[in-house]
């Protein structure tokens, strides 16, 4: 029997600095009521000076490894849109800092769908026998690529990292990943983008305020496409898993905004009380969103051993995906508030 990837460890980390809606209202044209009514977000965490995506990833990765019993892994995948440097990839240094000697490690870029893309890749490595234990981390410091006064993006995003450890196991055991489906549509690349900084439009050192250096998003179009794609791909995964809507115990969706989650849940026939929701306290943490939401749901009692779980996300590219699993009996290491630092 072909082995399945089994979730056996979970860790989360959030930076210590909290930025509330009232804090943002002091520096831009917005209010707590305006942000909350449109997004459901009341506060978010952001990195402090000198703290990078890699620092967040190390914290979450270490906690996932501890949750999984501390056994070494033989592959590290880091899903992120905000790497420490354009070159080299961030994952190898994360692996080094975690004491994983000579372990293959690479970055994966699919924006808010990155964790699900990484989950499918890790599962494939395990099923093929190319890896026995995989550390998958979703980490982003989106605050570093947002225009300071853009009320269309800055209130939405927060920083953080979440990680899981996967091992080989039987398809029917708790924690085993079920079917997954991924998709993309490059014709929608301009809906969610940072135009400058790549080879097509390099940054110009003579223009510190170069147009295109910050993250931009076409909110209304993203809402429409996200709801349609997340609903369709999640329905496909549910059907492949052989589950009815009433069989689903928890939907863990990428925490884009509350309106998107409500629309997707309604179309899937799921009540909101069966949806993991913590964006009110952390915002949209991009690639970190799903593992952070899982850790929060476990802590609140919303995810219990044996629960049938659907994961779904939509991100820039455009990219989207969904996956199914039965929740295992694991205890995530908490997010904590201690300071992350390099070294």
Automatic annotation (TrEMBL):
<dbReference type="GO" id="GO:0004315">
    <property type="term" value="F:3-oxoacyl-[acyl-carrier-protein] synthase activity"/>
</dbReference>
<feature type="active site">
    <location>
        <position position="284"/>
    </location>
</feature>
<dbReference type="GO" id="GO:0005737">
    <property type="term" value="C:cytoplasm"/>
</dbReference>
<dbReference type="InterPro" id="IPR013751">
    <property type="entry name" value="ACP_syn_III_N"/>
</dbReference>
<comment type="function">
    <text>Catalyzes the condensation reaction of fatty acid synthesis by the addition to an acyl acceptor of two carbons from malonyl-ACP. Catalyzes the first condensation reaction which initiates fatty acid synthesis and may therefore play a role in governing the total rate of fatty acid production. Possesses both acetoacetyl-ACP synthase and acetyl transacylase activities. Its substrate specificity determines the biosynthesis of branched-chain and/or straight-chain of fatty acids.</text>
</comment>
<feature type="region of interest" description="ACP-binding">
    <location>
        <begin position="255"/>
        <end position="259"/>
    </location>
</feature>
<comment type="similarity">
    <text>Belongs to the thiolase-like superfamily. FabH family.</text>
</comment>
<keyword id="KW-0276">Fatty acid metabolism</keyword>
<dbReference type="Pfam" id="PF08541">
    <property type="entry name" value="ACP_syn_III_C"/>
</dbReference>
<comment type="pathway">
    <text>Lipid metabolism; fatty acid biosynthesis.</text>
</comment>
<feature type="domain" description="Beta-ketoacyl-[acyl-carrier-protein] synthase III C-terminal">
    <location>
        <begin position="239"/>
        <end position="327"/>
    </location>
</feature>
<dbReference type="GO" id="GO:0033818">
    <property type="term" value="F:beta-ketoacyl-acyl-carrier-protein synthase III activity"/>
</dbReference>
<keyword id="KW-0511">Multifunctional enzyme</keyword>
<keyword id="KW-0963">Cytoplasm</keyword>
<dbReference type="GO" id="GO:0044550">
    <property type="term" value="P:secondary metabolite biosynthetic process"/>
</dbReference>
<keyword id="KW-0444">Lipid biosynthesis</keyword>
<dbReference type="InterPro" id="IPR004655">
    <property type="entry name" value="FabH"/>
</dbReference>
<keyword id="KW-0808">Transferase</keyword>
<feature type="active site">
    <location>
        <position position="254"/>
    </location>
</feature>
<keyword id="KW-0275">Fatty acid biosynthesis</keyword>
<feature type="domain" description="Beta-ketoacyl-[acyl-carrier-protein] synthase III N-terminal">
    <location>
        <begin position="107"/>
        <end position="186"/>
    </location>
</feature>
<dbReference type="GO" id="GO:0006633">
    <property type="term" value="P:fatty acid biosynthetic process"/>
</dbReference>
<keyword id="KW-0012">Acyltransferase</keyword>
<dbReference type="InterPro" id="IPR013747">
    <property type="entry name" value="ACP_syn_III_C"/>
</dbReference>
<keyword id="KW-0443">Lipid metabolism</keyword>
<protein>
    <recommendedName>
        <fullName>Beta-ketoacyl-[acyl-carrier-protein] synthase III</fullName>
        <ecNumber>2.3.1.180</ecNumber>
    </recommendedName>
</protein>
<feature type="active site">
    <location>
        <position position="112"/>
    </location>
</feature>
<comment type="subunit">
    <text>Homodimer.</text>
</comment>
<dbReference type="Pfam" id="PF08545">
    <property type="entry name" value="ACP_syn_III"/>
</dbReference>
<dbReference type="InterPro" id="IPR016039">
    <property type="entry name" value="Thiolase-like"/>
</dbReference>
């Amino acid at each position: 029997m072909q082995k399945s990837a089994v979730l056996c460890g979970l860790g989360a980390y959030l930076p210590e600095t909290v930025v509330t809606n009232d804090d943002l209202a002091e520096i831009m044209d917005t209010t707590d009521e305006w942000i909350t009514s449109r997004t459901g977000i009341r506060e978010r965490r952001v990195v402090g000076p000198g703290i990078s995506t890699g620092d967040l990833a190390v914290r979450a990765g270490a906690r996932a490894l501890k949750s999984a019993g501390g056994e070494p892994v033989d592959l590290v995948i880091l899903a992120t849109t905000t790497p420490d440097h354009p070159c080299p990839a961030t994952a190898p240094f994360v692996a080094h800092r975690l004491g994983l000697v000579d372990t293959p490690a690479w970055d994966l870029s699919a924006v808010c769908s990155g964790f699900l893309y990484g989950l499918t890749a890790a599962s494939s490595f395990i099923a093929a026998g190319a890896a026995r234990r995989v550390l998958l981390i979703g980490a982003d410091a989106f605050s570093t690529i947002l225009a300071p006064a853009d009320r269309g993006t800055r209130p939405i995003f927060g920083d953080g990292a979440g990680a899981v450890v996967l091992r080989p196991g039987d398809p029917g055991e708790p924690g085993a990943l079920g079917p997954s489906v991924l998709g993309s549509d490059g014709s929608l690349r301009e809906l969610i983008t940072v135009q400058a900084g790549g080879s097509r439009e390099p940054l110009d050192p003579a223009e510190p305020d170069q147009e295109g250096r910050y993250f931009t998003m076409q909110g209304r179009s993203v809402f429409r496409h996200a709801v349609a794609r997340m609903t369709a791909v999640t329905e496909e995964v549910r059907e492949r898993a052989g589950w009815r809507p009433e069989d689903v115990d928890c939907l863990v969706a990428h925490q884009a905004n509350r309106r998107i989650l409500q629309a997707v849940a309604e179309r899937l026939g799921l009540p909101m009380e069966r949806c993991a929701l913590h964006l009110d306290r952390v915002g949209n943490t991009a690639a970190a969103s799903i593992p952070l939401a899982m850790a929060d749901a476990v802590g609140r009692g919303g995810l219990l051993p044996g629960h049938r779980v659907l994961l779904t996300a939509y991100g820039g590219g455009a990219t989207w995906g969904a996956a199914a699993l039965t929740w295992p009996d694991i205890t995530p290491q908490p997010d904590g508030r201690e300071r992350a630092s390099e070294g």
